[in-house]
Amino acid sequence: MAEIIGDNIPNIPWRDKPEGYMYPVWRYSENPVITRDNLFMANSIFNCAVVPFGEGFKGVFRADMRSRDQTLVTGSSLDGIHWTLDKKVIFRGYDPRLCKIDEKYYLSWVNLTPHGTTIGIAYTEDFADWTQLEDACYPVARNGVLFPRKINGEYVLLIRPCDRGHTPYGDIFLSHSKDLTYWGKHRFVMSPVKNWEMTKVGAGPTPIETSEGWLLFYHGVLTSCNGFTYSMGAALLDINEPWKVIHRADSYLLAPHETYELVGDVPNVVFPCAALADAGTGRISVYYGAADTSVGLAFTTIDDVVDYIKENDLITGK
Ligand code: BMA
Questions:
Q1: Which residues line ligand 1 (CB under 6 A)?
Q2: 230 CA → ligand 1 middle, Å
Q3: Which atom of ligand 1 is found nearest the CA of 266?
Q4: Mean pLDDT, to the nearest integer, of 123-134?
Q5: pLDDT band at 86, cuts 50/70/90?
Q6: Of 196, 217, 215, which is closest to residue 287 (Cα–Cα)?
Q7: Which residues lie closer than 8 Å to 235 by C-beta, 6 or more apart?
Q8: Domains, the chain, ordered by start
């Protein structure tokens, strides 16, 4: 039995696995949980970051507006399913990730610069006031994801170098920092290997600490005659040397199959950016952008994911 190492979050949004369902990740039947209707003047609300906060949850959402400005706004929810978004723009850019380290909530996102995208980092204690730190690297990079605690005394950031366009390549790397300002000790983590992710991979939600290693959900991109298809995969990384991939599923866990994932501003996209994990029950809820238009919610457990990874393991060849 695998275990989640972390807080108990008994009010995690949850639905039991449908009777007879064979796969490790199942969708919330009332998806999408957030649409453009959650915010006046929004064109689309999709990739988002979520953390437990107080009695409920806080989030940061990618809201592309009717002007097509790419903005980040905050939101609150008591149950993790019904959200109230605040129209105030906290940062410009996209693909937010959130994690709590000590008493602060850290946001990393794709920050926009005149020279291309880079990784912005900011923190808050109350989701009202934010302190922005230095960007974590020079352009061009996306998918900057912090680990939720220091490892061997240092902050660790997953990062995906790319180009200024719709990058046709992409490996995951990581960097270390003692102060969240100066980053170094860069390490390679993983490349695309299998067909479903043949073009590029990028880290998804904040990694989840488990008895089996860091559970990393990530997106993998396939190029078909019709363009990119984004799906969700999973790997387990070494706890102390997280650039070492110890197990990795050779097949996706969630791919665009439902209409709201297949049809939208960018068709065929499942883009996970947030996960809530309850150590008490082993339950995991994953929030993902659907077709760059709305937010979907999916469920799994630590045992479902770890069993699937190990039964379809790219690393051990099982
Ligand atoms: C990536 C980012 C994501 C988006 C995905 C699919 O490059 O722009 O925000 O969800 O492409 O369009």
A1: 47, 94-95, 230, 266, 269, 271, 289, 292
A2: 9
A3: 12
A4: 98
A5: very high
A6: 217
A7: 190, 215, 216, 218, 245, 247, 248, 249, 309
A8: 42-311 (2.115.10.20)
- Pick the atom of ligand 1 nearest to 167's CA: 7
Distance 70 CA to ligand 1 centre (A): 12
CA 261 from chain centre, in angstroms, equals 16
Q: What is the pLDDT of residues 142-164, one digit of tens each?
A: 999 999 999 999 999 999 999 99
- Give the start-end residues of each E strand in 114-171: 116-124, 131-132, 141-146, 155-161
- The pLDDT of 46-63, averaged and rounded, is 98
Residue 318's pLDDT is 73
Which of 264, 258, 260, 271 is CA-nearest to residue 230? 271
Residue 221 Cα to ligand 1 midpoint, Å, equals 10
Residue 34's pLDDT is 98
User: Could you tell me which residues come within 8 angstroms of residue 312 by beta carbon, excluding any fewer than 6 positions away?
Assistant: 249, 250, 251, 318
Instruction: Give me ligand 1 centre to Cα 153, in Å.
Output: 32
